[in-house]
């Protein structure tokens, strides 16, 4: 169990009656404030949902003000344009970084569930970029099945070991811009294939011409998915 306690901004349930939880996982070099701004828009569809946006546990190695879930010192976008069978050792190192940092996130999930007296079936993860990598690392290995995972502009790391580590299969929707230069869309295509092969209910929505970011249509797709699985 990690001794790191995650903290970050929150957005209360608009109705005042919390029935579900969404945890927003930010990308590399950002912090919880980067994604908590999505909460008011998502709350229009999810009035009984409280939103949490924890800051990643480590200071960012490349930014004096941002945070990181794990190091990206060895990251090269070209890694994710290659087939999973030829994934280089550096990309596998990223997978190990994600694995080593799931404990603090799992602990945070346990804390917020206890605080609201809810179960994992009432909680969804929404990640962006490195936050998606964390969501896809933790979700299938979480002892209690989560309500769902939304992954914007991310990747599934460690898919070569996934089959033997699955504990639960939450539904997943992936949303990715076709013009993303930071995390190429091939990463979500690879994730789609790997998750399907391992029995997950998973969809991929490609956003034409979108770079590394979240657009209005993608946010609507996410809101519809969350409304379905948190209702």
Task: Describe the 3D structure.
The protein has a seven-stranded mixed beta sheet with strand order 1-3-2-6-7-8-9, with helices on both faces. The longest helix is centred in the middle third of the chain and has 15 residues, at 102-116. The radius of gyration is 16 Å and the shape is globular. It contains seven helices and nine strands. It starts with 9 loop residues before the first strand and ends with a helix. The chain is of the alpha/beta class and 231 residues long. The protein has one domain (10-230): Alpha/Beta hydrolase fold, catalytic domain (Rossmann fold, 3-Layer(aba) Sandwich).
Identify the notable features of this structure and list them briefly.
231 residues, 7 helices, Rossmann fold, 9 strands, 17% strand, seven-stranded mixed beta sheet, single chain
């Amino acid at each position: 169990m990690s001794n790191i306690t995650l903290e970050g901004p929150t957005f209360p349930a608009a109705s005042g009656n919390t029935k579900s939880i969404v945890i927003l996982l930010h990308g590399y070099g950002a912090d919880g404030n980067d994604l908590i701004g999505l909460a008011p828009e998502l709350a229009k569809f999810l009035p009984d949902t409280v939103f949490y946006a924890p800051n990643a546990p480590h200071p960012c190695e490349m930014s004096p003000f941002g945070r990181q879930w794990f190091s990206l010192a060895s990251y090269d976008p070209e890694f994710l344009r290659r087939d999973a069978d030829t994934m280089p050792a550096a990309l596998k190192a990223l997978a190990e970084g994600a694995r080593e940092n799931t404990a603090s996130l799992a602990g945070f999930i346990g804390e917020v569930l206890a605080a609201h007296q809810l179960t994992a079936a009432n909680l969804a993860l929404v990640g962006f970029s490195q936050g998606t990598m964390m969501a896809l690392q933790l979700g299938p290995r979480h002892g209690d099945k989560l309500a769902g995972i939304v992954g914007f502009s991310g990747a599934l790391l460690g898919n070569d070991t996934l089959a033997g580590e699955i504990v639960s299969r939450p539904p997943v929707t992936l949303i990715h811009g076709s013009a993303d230069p930071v995390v190429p869309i091939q990463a979500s295509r690879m994730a789609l294939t790997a998750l399907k092969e391992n029995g997950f209910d998973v969809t991929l929505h490609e956003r034409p011409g979108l770079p590394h970011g979240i657009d209005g249509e993608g946010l609507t797709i996410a809101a519809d998915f969350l409304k379905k699985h948190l209702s």
